[in-house]
Amino acid sequence: MSEEQKKVKETVENLAENQEVTNAEVTEPAEELKEEAVAEVAEEAIAEAVPEVKEEAVPVVKEEKVEEAFDWDSFGKKHEVYSKKDREKLESTYSNTLKSINENEVIDGIVVGKNNREVIVNIGFKSDGVISLSELRYKTDLKVGDTIEVYVESQEDLNGQLILSHKKARILRSWDRVNAAHDNDEIITGFVKSRTKGGLIVDVFGIESFLPGSQIDVKPIRDYDIYVGKNMEFKVVKINHEFKNVVVSHKALIEDELEAQKAEIIAKLEKGQVLEGIVKNITSYGVFIDLGGVDGLVHITDLSWGRINHPDEVVQLDQKINVVILDFDENKKRIALGLKQLTPHPWDALDTELKVGDKVKGKVVVIADYGAFIEIQPGVEGLIHVSEMSWSQHLRTAHDFVKIGDEVEAVIITLDREERKMSLGMKQLIPDPWTDIKGRYPVASKHKATVRNFTNFGIFVELEEGVDGLIHISDLSWSKKIKHPAEFTKIGEELEVVVMDVDEENRRLSLGHKQLEENPWDVFESVFEINSIQKGTVLTVSDKGAVVSLPYGVEGFAPSRHTKKEDNSNMLVDDVLEFKVIEFSKENKKIILSHTYVWKDEKPEKATTKKAATKSKRAAAKKVNEPSETTTLGDIAGELGALKTAMEKSEKKK
C-alpha cells in the first residue's frame, strides 16, 4: 500500500473513531447500518483515490438495506446529558472564573502578598500585578487580604508581567472623592507629608492639599513639625477647581465637638464673674484666654491700670490667671474679660493730702504734639500741655522739651478726683519772666534779640526765654522799602531792637529796629526840596518809569513821561543823570523826579511839601542844594556839612 493510501486510510479511521452517535433513539440495527454505510463509503473513497493499485476488482457483497430512515441531523453530535437551565448555570460559572480587563482602567484588587519593596495584587487576571510599596506608604496598616484600587498600566510587559499603579488610580478617582466629601461634609483621613509656609501639606486621596496653621487645632500651634508623618482626620472646607487646590481642616472637627460645650459654658456666664483661664494667645491688641472650651479676650487697656506697650509685659503664654467677665455676646459668642479690674483703682489710693500747687515727680509715658502724659504712680497720670512747659510764646511741640522715659518734676495745676484727671505744669517751677517786665524792658531801652519767626507783617524776636516781641515790617528801615522780612534778616540772627511799647496784661512787646537811628527824612525834607537838582543813577527801567538811586542811600522814582533825554532817547540802566525833584512826601517816604524838566527847564506841574516848614530850613537847603551844571568834591563836602548842621538843629529842636 502506497503512502498516499495509508494517509487516506488513517484519515477515514480517525473520522470513524471521532464520530459518535448522540441520538438516544437510534437502535442496534441502525448502528449496524451505520457501520456498513461507513465501510461502503470508505471503500468507494479508496477505490476512487487509488484505482491503479488494484489489478482486479474486489467483489463486494452487499447486504440488503434496512428500510428505516437514517438520522443524518444527529450524525456526529454528542448526546445532551444536561437540561437547558443547567447548561446556562454552568456557562455562567465558567464565565465568572475569567475577568475581562482593559489597559488604562481603574479596578479593585486584593493584596495577596507583601514584602519590604513591593505589594502583589490579584485582579482576577491570568497573572498577579506588582505595585511599589512607596505608593502605599500612607497605608501604615496595609495587610494581605485588603482591597485596594489599581490602575492597569500594561497587561503584559517585556517580561510578561502585569503592571499596575495604585498612585494613578487614586489620582483618577481622587477628585470625585474629594468633591463628594466636600458636598456631603464627610470626615476623611489624610497623611501629613511636610511642613510649608503657614501650614502643612496633606495627602488626601493622592491629592496634595493645604492645611492652614489656623485650621490644625482650636489652640494656636507653635510647632508644626510634630504633625509631619502622621495620619489625621479632616474635613474638606474649600475646593478651587480652576487651580486644582484643596483646603482641609482638622479644627472643624474639634469645633463641632466644642460648640455644645461653648453653648453650655456661655449659658452659665454672668457679668462680674471671676474665672480661671489659661493664656492661649498674645497679640499686640490683647490676650486670648481659654476658659475651658470657650475663649475670651482681655484687651490691652484692661490688663493694667498703668500704661503698657505690649501685653507680654504683663502675661506669658500658658500662664494661669484669674479674670473677670466684663461683657459677653451669646449670639456672636464673644466674651470681654478684664484683669486690672481685680485690683483697686490707683486713683482711689492717691494721697488725699495732694492738692493744687503741690510739686510731683513722674515718668513721661506718652508724648503728643500738644503735650506729654506723666505717670505719677501706676495708673495715675497727669497731662503737661505744651503751653505749660515754657514761658515762651512762639509755637513749639512737646518733643522739644521731653522724651519718653524722662523723669520730670511738675506742679499740679488742676486736680479732679471724680473725673480722675490732673493737669500739670513745668514752667511754674521757674520765675515768670513777665514779672516786673516794665522795669527790665522800659520804653526806649535798647536790647539784643534773636530772630525766631517771620510773618508777612513783621518779625518775632526773643529777648529771653519766655519774653518775645514783634518788630513791624515798617519799623525795620527808614530808607529801604521792604516787602518781606526775609529780605532784611534771617531766622536765628541777632538783631538790635528798641522797646516801643509794653503791654504787660496781654504779654506783648512792640519793638523797633530803625528807631536806633534818627529819622533821615527829617533832614531829607530840606535836602531834597522841590525844584532842587539831584544827581542820580538809574537802577531799573519799566513801562511805568525808572527807579533812581539818589545821594544818602535814598531812592526816587521818575515816571515814564519824565525819562526822556534831550536827544529824545530813553534812559537806560546805570545811566548817571541829573534829576529835578518835583514831589517830596516825608510821611510816605516818596520822592518823585524828572529828568525831562532838567533840560527843558520847566517847573513841576505839581509839588507838595510842608507849608509849615521854617524859612531857615529852606534857606539852608537852598545853600546846600544850589542848582549847578557840574558837581565837584567840594560841592559834595559842602552838601554833607549842610546836612550834618541841619540834623544837629533838628535834634536840638526835639
In short:
This protein is 20% helix and 32% strand.
Task: Describe the protein in words.
- The protein is of the alpha+beta class.
- The protein has 6 domains: 3-74, no CATH class; 185-254, OB fold (Dihydrolipoamide Acetyltransferase, E2P); 269-342, OB fold (Dihydrolipoamide Acetyltransferase, E2P) (Beta Barrel), CATH 2.40.50.140; 346-429, OB fold (Dihydrolipoamide Acetyltransferase, E2P) (Beta Barrel), CATH 2.40.50.140; 437-516, OB fold (Dihydrolipoamide Acetyltransferase, E2P) (Beta Barrel); 521-653, Nucleic acid-binding proteins (OB fold (Dihydrolipoamide Acetyltransferase, E2P), Beta Barrel), CATH 2.40.50.
- The chain is 20% helix and 32% strand.
- The chain contains 10 helices and 30 strands.
- The strands form 6 sheets. Strands 1-2-3-5-4 form a 5-stranded mixed beta barrel.
- A hairpin with a 4-residue loop joins β19 (407-416) and β20.
- α1 (3-18) packs antiparallel against α2, α7 crosses α10 (633-653) and α9 packs antiparallel against α10.
- It is elongated.
- Mean pLDDT is 77; it is low at 18-34, 49-67 and 603-637.
Query: What percent of residues are in strands?
Result: 25-35%
* Count of folded domains: 6
CATH superfamily of the largest domain: Nucleic acid-binding proteins
Average pLDDT for all residues: 77
The percent range for helix content is 10-25%
- CATH topology-level fold name of the largest domain: OB fold (Dihydrolipoamide Acetyltransferase, E2P)
Distance between the termini: 182 Å
By DSSP, the count of extended strands is 30
Q: Categorize the overall geometry.
A: elongated
